[in-house]
């Protein structure tokens, strides 16, 4: 893939003067004819300007893809091999350009595109110096938060996944743990008497969801009450 050329700025578009533009007085027919002519001219110029913007957008997209690669949403585990192959191809192309003497000006840009985390060779995301996997290391970013899925519970507290997820995601889970949560929800709905194979195909009735949540809350309260009673008995025996 070659480096895209920079897009040229759009030239201003002007409407040519109509033969009736200098007239002091116009009849109704001449007025309608002039308006119709101007409407056709404006429509033609808008179309030309639209396609010029599309060409500029295409050039900027090529430049963005060249600098930053694919979107971070496609940097999953299934595509790690493809990313490694792309990095190898980019390194080979960069070496070829350096040998030919035409890539010396791009070495600094390539270095700036890499993630600042030590040992990470992934490309940095736009407007930051970190890749998608390490974007939470950027203290100035406000778009991502860590996945809140509890991987393991310890005495010091729960250990969360903390993979970067967009703040607008509800619930705040990464794609892997979102699937796990959906499976848990399907099991809970089956226990409540609603047999469905996917949460996307059929929305459960509200009263079924409420009943399941109430059951889970009551189960947690019973467990907490039993733990409190057992602790009180131990305290009494110690006295």
UniProtKB/TrEMBL annotation:
Residues annotated as signal peptide: none
InterPro entries on file: NSL2, Znf_KANL2-like
Pfam families membership: zf-C3HC3H_KANSL2
Disordered, as annotated region: 1-27, 77-110
Entry keyword set: Nucleus
Domain KANL2-like probable zinc-finger intervals: 116-178
GO cellular component, one term: NSL complex
Predominant location category: nucleus
Domain of life of the native organism: Eukaryota
Keyword presence, Nucleus: yes
Subcellular location: Nucleus
Acidic residues biased stretches: 77-90
Entries under PANTHER family matching the protein: KAT8 REGULATORY NSL COMPLEX SUBUNIT 2 (PTHR13453)
Full protein name: KANL2-like probable zinc-finger domain-containing protein
